Amino acid sequence: RHRSKLREFVKHEAEKNKSPWKTIGPAKVAVPSPNDFLQKRSKEPKLAPKKKEQDGKRLLPLLPPRTYHPVIHIKKNFINKNAVAVITGEPKKPRHFCVDTRQGDKYLLEPSGLFPKYIKKKNYGVVPKYVTRRNEEMKREEEEYQARVLEQLKKKAMKTLSEEERTNILKALKKKWEEINRAYQGLPILTDTRYKRMHKEELELQLTQLEHDIAALEKHKTIYIADV
User: Fold this and answer.
1) Residue 180 lies in a domain
2) How far apart are CA 125 and CA 127, in angstroms?
3) CA distance 93 to 54
4) Domain presence at residue 168
5) What is the total count of domains within the chain?
């Protein structure tokens, strides 16, 4: 049977890439010595030793220098201070109470809602600034919208028919009506065929439409033409 020429080369490459302990492998670190066992508090951080001297000089002097003056705390007289505060301060305003029983049960009048403190404010009954500002913005937006609508209406405004054009159209309609009326008068009295009936009905419709248009032009002096 057929044997490839490269069979031996492939087997050699496959065996060359194989090696024992390739996945796990032996330990590549040094085995710790039994004498280096974990001792108590060995992993706690250690502070650096205190240095008593640095470059032949002491870090802190043992005694304060001659020029040192200690801070003297002045003792305050709180009794005199409180007395001055009471004398110079504003007197307390009397609190309003409400008594609602004969036994003398009373409660504060201000938080009860019976004391008119809100109507005595300076800004009581004054429209807030945000309301005024919002009303102005709404008014300005309404004016801008009305201006845009008027501009659009001016662009789409209908044209007015002049008096000369109206007179000319009216004359043309009357002339057309006379022609169709002359043709209608010339029809035979007996309409015994379908064509005669259809022709008569068509002329009647044309005369009716022309009479309606003539009456509209004569009735209205100002006529607007829409752009369709």
Assistant:
1) yes
2) 6
3) 68
4) yes
5) 1
Q: Is 194 a domain residue?
A: yes
For the chain, counts of helices (H) and of strands (E): 5, 6
Could you read off the pLDDT of 1-33 as tens digits, one per residue?
788 888 988 888 888 877 665 666 666 778 778
Distance CA 179, CA 207 (A): 10
d(CA 112, CA 104): 17
Distance, CA of 60 to CA of 62 (rounded, Å): 6
- Average model confidence (pLDDT) across the chain: 83
pTM > 0.90: no
- Write out the two tokens for 129: 């600034």
For residues 52 and 59, the answer to whether their CB atoms sit within 8 Å is yes
Phi, psi for 98 (deg, rounded to 5): -125, 125
User: How far apart are the C-alpha atoms of 92 and 87, rounded to whole Å?
Assistant: 12
| DSSP state letters, 119-173 | TTSTTTTPPPHHHHHHHHHHHHHHHHHHHHHHHHHHHTPPEEPPHHHHHHHHHHH
Residue 177: domain span: 163-219
**Contact between 123 and 131 (Cβ < 8 Å):** no
Provide the CB-side half-sphere exposure for 202 (13 A, CA): 8
- Give pLDDT tens digits for 162-194: 888 888 999 999 999 999 998 888 888 877 888
47, part of any domain: no
**Other Cβ atoms closer than 10 A to 96:** 11
